[in-house]
Amino acid sequence: VKKSDVVQVILGTQYLQAPKNITGSAFAPTNIALCKYWGKRDQELNLPVTPSLSISLGKKGANATITVSDATHDEIILNDQLVNTDVPFSKRLISFLNLFRLSGTLAFTICITSNIPIAAGLASSAAGFASIVKALNGLYGWQLDTSSLSILARLGSGSASRSLYQGFVEWHKGVRKDGMDSFSEAIREIWPEFCIGLLIVSDKEKGVSSREAMQRTVATSALYSAWPQKVTTDLADIKIAIAEKDFNLLGKTAESNALTMHATLLSAWPPVNYAISETIQAMQKIWQLRNNGLEIYFTQDAGPNLKLLFLQKDLATIQTHFPTAEILQPFA
Ligand code: 2P0
C-alpha cells in the first residue's frame, strides 16, 4: 500500500481538488512517549509494531502556515530563515506535500515556527508534520476528523500521529495493511501536578536517525522479540497509573520502558548507543536521589538528553539538583 492510496481513501472526492482557501495555519504540540514507538511493521506508511502512549507538551510545539503561491517552486521558511529546498528536511517535507497536489500545478509557501529547543531531541518532526496536516486541512477546507488527521500526520512521521491532541495520547497500532486503524486518541484524564524537566546534556546532532536505528534494531537485535510483550505490560500499567494518579507506577514504568528500548539498541548491529557519559552521570544522579526518597524518574528518546518526570510538589527540590533543566507543565 502506498501513501497516496491512503490519502485517496481519506480524502475521497476531495482528493486532488483545489484548495478552498488561500492560506491555512495551525499549531500542534510536540509529545514525549512514556511507552515508546520503536519498530515498524510497514516502512512506507510508518505503521508501528506496537501501540505507544505519550504526553503532549502544551504550548511547546510547531506552528505551520501554508499559503498558495504563484512561484514555480515551494518556498520553505523555518524559524524566519529561508531553507534550501535541496536539504533532506525540505525534500521530506516537499514529498509529503506532493501527496496532496497534482505535481507541479501548485506551489506553496510553508512557514514553520517552532519553540522546541532543537537540541532537546524532542522529535520536532512530530509537531512539524502534525501542524502541517492541520494547516492543510484549513487550506483545502477538508473538514477531516482528528483520527483522519492523525493518520495523515503518521504518513509524515510516526510520532506525529500522537501530536494531534493535548494531554495523554495513545496511538493504536492497528492490524490493517492500509493502516486505517492505526491512529491516535486522547486519554481524557488530566494530571495538573505532572511536570517534565528537559535535561539537555548535549546539543550535538545525533549520528544515527531514529528511522535508521529502528530499522536496524528490528533487523538485528536478539532482544527485539521481547519488545512487544514489554510494551503490552507497560502500556497497561501506564494506563492504570494515569487513571489512579499513581505517579510511582507511571515513573517506574516509563523509565523501564525507555531503558528497555535502549537495551534493544545496544544489542543491534552495528550497535546504537544514544547515551554519552553525561547521560549516564545524570541517570546515576537520578537513581541516587530516588534512593534518598525523591520521586523522580526519567525517560530518554533517540538522543543523549533526558526528560525528568516528577510532580509539582518536588519542583523546588528538582530545580536545586538540576538548575539547567527547562521545566514544563503539560496541563498548566
Ligand atoms: C517515540 N521515537 O515513541 C519514539 C521513541 C524516538 C524514541 O518516535 O520514522 O521521528 O518518522 O516514524 O516518529 C522518533 O521517531 O520516526 C520516535 P518516523 P519518528 O517517540
Quick tags:
9 helices; alpha+beta; 332 residues; 36% helix
Mean pLDDT: 95
What is the radius of gyration?
20 Å
Question: In what range is the share of β-strand residues?
Answer: 15-25%
Bound molecules: ligand 2P0
Low-confidence sequence ranges: none
| Succession of helices and strands | HEEEEEEHEHHEEEHHHHEEHE
Describe the structure.
The protein is α+β, with helices and mostly antiparallel strands and 332 residues long. It has helices at 3-11, 88-97, 124-140, 146-156, 210-220, 227-244, 247-266, 277-291, 315-321, and strands spanning 23-35, 40-42, 47-48, 52-69, 75-78, 81-83, 107-114, 168-171, 184-186, 194-199, 297-300, 306-311, 326-328. The strands form three sheets. Strands 1, 4, 5, 6, 7, 8 and 9 form a seven-stranded mixed beta sheet that branches. It has a four-stranded antiparallel beta sheet with strand order 11-12-10-13. A two-stranded antiparallel sheet has the order 2-3. Strand 2 and strand 3 form a beta hairpin. Helix 3 crosses helix 4 (146-156) and helix 6 runs antiparallel to helix 7. It binds ligand 2P0. Ligand 2P0 is lined by residues 33, 36-38, 46, 52, 123, 125, 157-159, 210-211, 301-302.
